[in-house]
Design a protein that fits this description.
The complex is a heterodimer of chains A (260) and B (410). With 260 residues, chain A is an alpha/beta fold. Helices cover 35% and strands 24% of the residues of chain A. Chain A contains ten helices and ten strands. Chain B has 18 helices and two strands. Classes of the chains: A alpha/beta (260), B mainly alpha (410).
């Protein structure tokens, strides 16, 4: 456990020199990245540039081959996903991963932290967890009403549309009372109006609940209207960083996107 | 002609009353299937070695027999009838020791001539015997489950399934080869007799009362455990491990807990299996294939649904009854002597029937339902919806009705 580097002190998430190789493929090749508190940060780049792998490394799905990651001042490099969750960092997936045999409502219920009813011995006696379950249920219903998932809340999550799955995943992640949420392509497959509503909600969540966001997104025309800062990845490396208006004009970025 | 007779046979065996023996058998298996359902149905852990943990109950019973019952019986008969010992070939007051004497000729004689008569006269000791066996069995099951699962819970479920399956094959051979476990190929004997007390003089009524009590406690435990936030977590893990881990669930720990609990309950069920169903215990009761019968029962009824799993047991027993009747009648219809054992044909027929049921009702007789906690009631009250399964049934029935009306009109 090392302390975060000095120029990274204030950032909520700090990534330094992270590398992840798959055989000969350098999926992530020495990435430095900071996400300051209460910022909405975008992570863009062509397909295969290593964005999702970087997400997986930060979230503990993969262990990095080199480099370190700090979250909220604590070294979280190589911790398993459930430990990273405990520290207040949650994520969503590019292809939504809701629990298919649970209803949308149950999905949002299962995310809460520190529920005593999730201990097998305490689960046997309802009085240990009833109060907590009632509170969680009420809060979950509020979130569902808020997110527009009400019409499908009682459906199995395998029986809803792709966009609703994305919303469901976000709602589930928010119920964990996170410090930071990493969203993997939240607007993919959602119509432009709904996508804008989604991003407006993200801004509202940042303003009202103080949640920090790191967002992978391909729909730059929407993303750039809402983010504070953007990182551009290409072939496992960060090739540009800055405010959206700066990044758009960066010749390297233009080249990468034109090359496809 | 043959077809009509076969249909007649099927109808006859299906409509015959349940029968006391079938009811007792069903409830004993229901206890075992419930423990499997936590692991397989709820948590998605394919425990292909279930029978090995049931055998732990028998092993515990055997150990308690030697360590607790034998000394008591020896002390009693040393005073009352010392000549009993000469028949067995022991000094008065002496008794076979565990593990050294386990499975020996003397030990079996001692069991039949001295221990069993003693138990039949001292029902209280027999109840103590059962309780101690259940306690030791549960402990043994939990510990073995922990030891076996610990190294592999971090790997995919397939590896755990293979490991447990191999363990159950190994243990089946060990049961024959290592007498201290259950007395080797000879096995050991306990008695139904104490159940006379519960059944007011009738052994079978007593057995029924006993298994209803055990089943009741077990069902309540499993139902409480699963219809809770913990049950929801188990399903989440079963559906998508990565998503569950991302949402803070410690997958290795939950898997380990589930296997320990499932094994504990299976071993306690194993003690009931010995005392209530098979008082003559031999290694063949614990063949690895029994696990698959339990899995078939669970899938038939509805994996992940506790009521369904219990119903599945009885459905399976009914199917078994039909196939037994058919097997017995088959050589007559064909007019030939069959050179293969009847049990084999019955297994094939049972297999075909289960495939048919699974083909047309893949989620079992009663499919899985939502986890019923207070959160479910609150949701219904505030957003008022019909749960998916019930709604599905209503839609299905409405559709059938509409078709029926259409056909009438047409």
């Amino acid at each position: 456990m090392t302390r975060p580097p000095e120029n990274c002190d204030d950032a909520l998430l700090c990534v330094r020199g992270v590398k992840k190789y798959f055989g000969g493929v350098r999926a992530v090749d020495g990435v430095d990245l900071e996400v300051p508190r209460r910022w909405i940060v975008g992570l863009i780049g062509p397909n295969g540039s290593g964005k999702s792998t970087l997400f997986n490394v930060i979230a503990g799905v993969y262990k990095p081959d080199a480099g370190r990651i700090w979250f909220d001042g604590e070294d979280i490099t190589g911790l398993p996903p459930h430990e990273i969750y405990k520290r207040g960092l949650v994520r969503t997936f590019q292809t939504p991963r809701l629990w298919q045999s649970l209803t949308v409502y149950e999905n949002t219920l299962a995310g809460y932290r520190g529920h005593s009813g999730e201990n097998p011995l305490r689960a046997l006696l309802r009085l240990f967890w009833r109060k907590r379950e009632v509170d969680n249920a009420e809060a979950s219903i509020e979130r569902i009403l808020d997110s527009g998932l009400k019409p499908v809340a009682g459906n199995l999550s395998s029986d809803i549309s792709g966009g609703q799955m994305k919303l469901g995943e976000l709602t589930r992640a928010l119920n964990t009372k996170p410090k930071m949420v990493m969203l993997d392509e939240p607007a993919a497959g959602i119509n432009p109006t709904l996508a804008r509503q989604l991003f407006e909600r993200i801004v509202k969540l940042r303003d009202e609940e103080g949640i920090t966001f790191l967002i992978i997104e391909h729909r730059l025309e929407i993303l750039f209207d809402y983010v504070d800062y953007v990182y551009v990845m290409h072939q496992g490396k960060i090739i540009a960083r800055g405010k959206p208006e700066e990044v758009v004009e960066d010749p390297k970025v233009i080249q990468v996107y034109l090359e496809g | 002609m043959a077809v009509g007779e076969i249909i007649g046979l099927i109808v006859e065996s299906l409509t015959a009353p349940l029968g006391l023996h079938l009811l007792i058998t069903g409830l004993v298996y229901a206890v075992l299937v419930l423990s499997l359902n936590i692991e397989y149905g709820w948590a998605g852990i394919p425990n292909f070695g279930k029978i090995a943990f049931i055998a732990m109950g028998a092993i515990a019973t055997h150990i308690v027999y030697y360590l607790y019952v034998f000394p008591k019986a020896a002390a009693y008969y040393a005073e009352v009838a010392p000549d009993k010992f000469t028949l067995v070939g022991l000094e008065p007051g002496d008794y076979p020791k565990w593990p050294g004497d386990a499975g020996s000729y003397t030990a079996i004689n001692f069991m039949l001539q001295i221990a069993l008569p003693y138990l039949q006269e001292h029902l209280l000791v027999l109840f103590e015997f059962m309780l101690l066996s259940a306690a030791l069995g549960g402990l043994l099951g939990a510990i073995i489950g922990l030891i076996l699962a610990y190294p592999v819970v971090r790997l995919r479920e397939d590896y755990l399934a293979i490991l447990l399956l191999m363990f159950s094959f190994m243990l089946w051979n060990f049961l024959t080869a290592i007498p201290p476990l259950i007395g080797g190929s000879q096995g050991f004997r306990v008695t139904y007799d104490p159940f006379k007390v519960l059944g007011l003089g009738n052994v079978d009524y007593g057995r029924l009362v006993a298994i209803i009590l055990i089943f009741g406690v077990m069902y309540l435990l499993v139902d409480r455990l699963t219809h809770s936030p913990y049950g929801r977590t188990l399903r989440a893990m079963r559906d998508d491990e990565l998503a569950a881990a991302t949402m803070g669930k410690n997958i290795s720990r939950i898997r380990l807990e589930t296997i320990v609990m499932g094994s504990f309950l299976a071993a306690v069920g194993g003690v009931a299996f010995v005392f209530i169903l098979f008082p003559s215990v031999t290694p063949d009761l614990f063949k690895p294939e029994v696990t698959f019968m339990l899995i078939a029962m669970m899938l038939l009824g509805g994996a992940g649904n506790n009521v369904g799993a219990v119903l599945g047991v009885f459905a399976f027993l009914y199917i078994f009854r039909v196939t037994t009747a058919l097997t017995a009648a088959l050589p007559g219809y064909l007019g030939v002597e069959l050179a293969i054992p009847e049990g084999l044909i019955r297994n094939v027929l049972t297999g075909i029937l289960i495939i048919l049921v699974l083909f047309y009702r893949p989620r079992g007789i009663i499919p899985e339902e939502s986890v019923k906690t207070v959160a479910w009631d609150i949701f219904n009250k505030r957003l008022g919806f019909i749960p998916p399964s019930a709604r599905g049934t209503i839609v299905l029935l409405a559709g059938r009705l509409r078709n029926l009306i259409k056909r009438r009109k047409g």
